[in-house]
Amino acid sequence: MNQLGFWEVEVPPKVVNVASVPQRSPFRYPGGKTWLVPRARQWLRSLPSKPKKFIEPFAGGAITGLTVAFESLADFVILVEKDEQVAAVWQTIINTDDGAEWLANKIINFKLTPESARLLISSQSNSSRDLAFKTIIQNRVSHGGILADGAGILKNGEKGKGILSRWYPATLKRRILDISKVRENLKFIKGDGFQTIKKYSGVSDVVYFVDPPYTASKKKAGARLYKYHQVDHAKLFELMSKAKGDFLMTYDDADEVRALALKYRFETRLVAMTNTHNTTMTELLIGRDLNWVDKL
Predict the structure, then answer these.
(1) How does DSSP classify residue 10?
(2) Where does residue 52 fall: left (phi above 0), alpha (psi -120 to 50 degrees), or beta otherwise?
(3) CB 3.0-4.6 Å disulfide test: which of 7, 68, 119, 267 passes with 290?
(4) How many CB atoms neighbour CB 239 within 10 A?
(5) What separation in angstroms does the CA of 270 have from each of 200, 220, 236, 253, 273?
(6) Checking DSSP bridges between strand 280-287 and strand 247-251, what pairing results, if any?
(7) Rounded Cα distance, 128 and 201, in Å
(8) Could you tell me the fold of the domain covering 1-82+191-296?
(9) SS3 (DSSP) at 79
(10) Distance (Å, whole) CA 32 – CA 61
């Protein structure tokens, strides 16, 4: 038992092989949830009926929401993101007619070198499309895909390839064009995820995948990864307690988080995952009913 009186929970031994999960997002996203995709599928399929709407209020790289759209696990998917750079990419691909085609062509025709990358990243963006293109380039050449200030550009990269280590223009083009094919089932909102949760709070056939920046614990891992890392976690838990629809939250396993879950009588489960350094770690799933987790 830890200092808050929580019994230690045995960690499920199975770690998801992320190579088995279809890569849908054009982002290399810090804190991305590719490893969680099989569990998200299991959660949604455990529900009594197919959700009318799936909402991801802290979308980021949006791998979960994109998977739901591609696999028709909900009738409609709403992605929300506050970060201007990330939002520009989703606005261009999802909300703008011919935006996906434009962005895909810009990527496939770009000659990436350290000089061309630095010149583009330092340039002014005259439109949301220009910002989207710059963001993709910056995301691909930055350490860990981090867009926040201070990330720095890759030097050695994998096998000494430098900034070309994560540059796959043909793959990025395909992913972007594939997303455009399911646009009718997607909506992107640039703004505060809290407001979107409030808007649909009274609707029972809406579900939420809530993956906020991990800043609730003393580690505050998300503070160096994201521009908008400050989140009122207590308010977020309160909002989810009032939502009629089901939800799945992911967090660092921390006493502060477990205390909030206990306050609102949410269930918690530890799950194993592998980080970007191939180290096995654990994260905390939170929801109203997590019996489905035991069945994986």
Answers:
(1) P
(2) alpha
(3) 267
(4) 19
(5) 28, 19, 20, 8, 10
(6) antiparallel
(7) 30
(8) Rossmann fold (3.40.50)
(9) strand
(10) 6
Strand partners, 232: none
Strand partners, 78: 55, 187
Q: In the sheet where 186-190 sits, what is the strand order?
A: 186-190, 76-81, 53-56, 206-210, 247-251, 280-287, 267-274
Q: What is the pLDDT of residue 6?
A: 45
Domain spans of the chain, in order of start: 1-82+191-296, 99-185
- Whole-angstrom CA distances from 29 to 72, 199, 226, 267 are 23, 27, 10, 27
H or E segment to which residue 258 belongs: helix 255-263
Structure tokens at 214: 């991990």
DSSP assigned state of 187 = E
How do the pLDDT tens digits run along the chain, 296 residues long?
444 444 444 445 455 556 668 899 999 876 668 889 999 999 999 999 999 999 999 999 999 999 999 999 999 999 999 999 999 999 999 999 999 999 999 999 999 998 999 999 899 998 999 999 999 999 988 866 666 555 566 555 455 556 777 789 999 999 999 999 999 999 999 999 999 999 999 999 999 999 998 655 555 554 444 465 578 999 999 999 999 999 999 998 999 999 999 999 999 999 887 655 566 678 899 999 999 997 65
Q: Cβ(164)–Cβ(157) under 8 Å?
A: yes
Whether the CB-CB separation of 80 and 212 falls below 8 Å is answered with no
In this structure, what is the dihedral angle of CA atoms 88, 142, 163, 154, given to the nearest 10 degrees? 170
- SS3 helix, strand, coil % of the chain, rounded to 5? 45, 15, 40
